[in-house]
Structures are given as C-alpha cells and as structure tokens.
Amino acid sequence: xxxxxxxxxxxxxxxxDPLQQRLAIKLVDKLRENMKGYYPSISRVLLAVIGPYxxxxxxxxxMPAGIIREAVYKELQKxxxxxxxxxxxxxxxxxxxxxxDAATDSLTFxxxxxxxxxxxxxxxxxxxxxxxxxxxxxWVPMGDxxxxxx
Length: 150
Hints:
Layout: H1 2-5, H2 18-34, H3 42-50, H4 64-76, H5 79-85, E1 98-101, E2 106-110, E3 116-120, E4 140-142, E5 145-147
Antiparallel strand pairs: 1-2, 2-3, 4-5
Helix pairs in contact: 2-4
C-alpha cells in the first residue's frame, strides 16, 4: 500500500497530493515520537518500505517518494541520540534485516540473498523538510479555479 501512495518507479509527478501530504505528516510525526523513545515503532515499517537512502537513483527529491524519503531520513539522523537514551529497547525500532552501528552512525540493510547496503546517516546532507510548506504541494487546475486534485 505504501508504494501505491508513494510510487518510486516510472514517471512521477512533482510534489505531494493532499492524501500523500496528510499521510506523510502522520508518518513523520510518529517517527519523530519514535526518535524520542516512544512506541509503537513506525520506524520498523518505514525502514522496510523505504530501504537504503541511495537504493534507487531514479527517485528525485521532488517526487512524492523522494519527499517522504528525505523527511524520514532527516528524522533517522537522530538515531544516535536514541541509541544513547534507550540502549535496552533500541533494537525494537528496526526490522530484523537492518542493523544500526553507533560507532559509524550507519544503517546496514541485509537482503535475503546476503547482499548488504549501508547508509551512513552522518554523511547525509539533508535539509529540514516541512511537509506543510507549499513548495512540496502538487497544484493542478480544477475547472476554472486552481486547487488540489487527486
């Protein structure tokens, strides 16, 4: 369902439609709570569906999948603080195939056949993503007026 709402293949429109924006706001807000040590752990699901940061080069920062990826990884850059604050519960925030290395501040994604991809969170140069900023909206004509459409 995530990839139906935030498709990452093929030609994609720029910006978020209202459904994508609302869902992205909810997911990132819950992830922000996770980074403070609260449950339920939406980080497990987001890491599993988004995957490593550099996994798909065709995703641009302007596409819906790129916008949610940027917002999620900006929050994930707080994992080092979570690791320090909640070392006993830290593994609960990850799916089984993903490991966090606090020494290198990196996530390693191991796939079914043993291939591994690593994302170094500390080296990612990410801007803050405000999902309510109009720069991330998708505006399209609706009849005589301008507005949102699905």
